[in-house]
Amino acid sequence: MERMFGKPIVTQEQMRARIREMGRQISADYTGKDLVLVGVLKGAYAFYADLARAIRIPIRVDFLVVTSSEGRGKAAGKVKLVTELTENIRGKDVLLVEDIVDSGLTAQRLLKTLARKKPRSLNLCALLSKDECRVVDVHVEYVGFAVPNQYIVGYGLDYRQKYRNLPYLAVLDKRDFHDE
Ligand code: IMP
Ligand code: MG
What we know:
CATH topology: Rossmann fold
Helix content: 10-25%
Bound molecules: inosinic acid, magnesium ion
Number of helices: 3
CATH architecture: 3-Layer(aba) Sandwich
Shape: globular
Number of domains: 1
Structural class: alpha/beta
Radius of gyration: 16 Å
Distance between the termini: 24 Å
CATH class: Alpha Beta
């Protein structure tokens, strides 16, 4: 696909290689366990689909849909969980799959919600992490790429619900902001 816009920061090739590694690692760590991969929609949809197929042990898939008000930081605190899991995760090994951990508020909130359902283990996996933006201490067991504090779109990540279909990760340049 032609470049739509933006400064690519992670290419499709880099992503493919990294996700393959993550899949290998997760497969090794969860061998003999009962893994439920819980994706956070919409942002994680692209990463989730690739990661799930890079995992070589039988897993269950499930999803949570969250919405948040536009913006980041404080606005991210207004996370709304709009769906429930369909799988019973009690006694299972749950891996929450996020697109990006920024302040950490969303992940912290979701981990708390999942923990109440008494899984045997609970871990977090994120394609991206903005380590310097963390407001709460949340442990990300598997990180695809650490990224600087810039607004990133593509590969599931949006700007005002658009650009999720960009097949690579790009920094959204102010000149690319198309408001309509
Ligand atoms: P939090 O600040 O860790 O709670 O991040 C909340 C959510 O903000 C993430 O799940 C993303 O949906 C969104 N987000 C944070 N940083 C970015 C970004 O750079 N691009 C697109 N979405 C982002
Ligand atoms: Mg988002």
